[in-house]
Amino acid sequence: MQIEVMKSKLHCVRVTEANLNYMGSITIDEDLMDAVNLIPGERVYIVNNNNGERFDTYVIKGERGSGCICLNGAAARKVQVNDIVIIMSYALMDFEEAKSFKPMVAFPDQQTNKIVK
Question: Which segments within the chain are labelled E, that is strand?
Fold first, then answer.
């Protein structure tokens, strides 16, 4: 049996941009992507702590060290700059493997979106 479990989580990052006139997706600082093992094109689920919106899209690599969290296209209507969001991805895995799997979770600084070590 395969089940879907959380693979990656960026907990409480700040939206830095919302670009309605782009073809969709979320642009994420490459440092943040690396911190939780996200790759370009990967499906992510986003929860907006400010307004309760929940939606999914795919990842685009942003400039390393920029702190960029930019919602693009239609997703830009679900956030405002400075909203706090949680970004999660999930993976399918064997039930027994899932019991011991440990997701990658990061708690970046909410003002800068930099990884706090």
Answer: 2-14, 17-19, 25-29, 43-48, 54-62, 69-72, 84-94, 104-106
Give the number of domains in the chain: 1
User: Average pLDDT for residues 38-53, to the nearest whole number?
Assistant: 98
Q: List the domain range (segments joined by +) for residue 31.
A: 2-106
106/63 Cα distance (integer angstroms) = 18
Cβ neighbours of residue 99 closer than 8 Å, sequence gap 6 or more: none
Query: Which residues are the active-site residues?
Result: 25, 58
Alpha helices by DSSP H, listed for 1-115, are 30-35, 95-100
Is it the case that residue 30 has pLDDT exceeding 70?
A: yes
| Any domain includes 111 | no
In degrees rounded to 5, what are phi and psi of residue 97? -60, -40
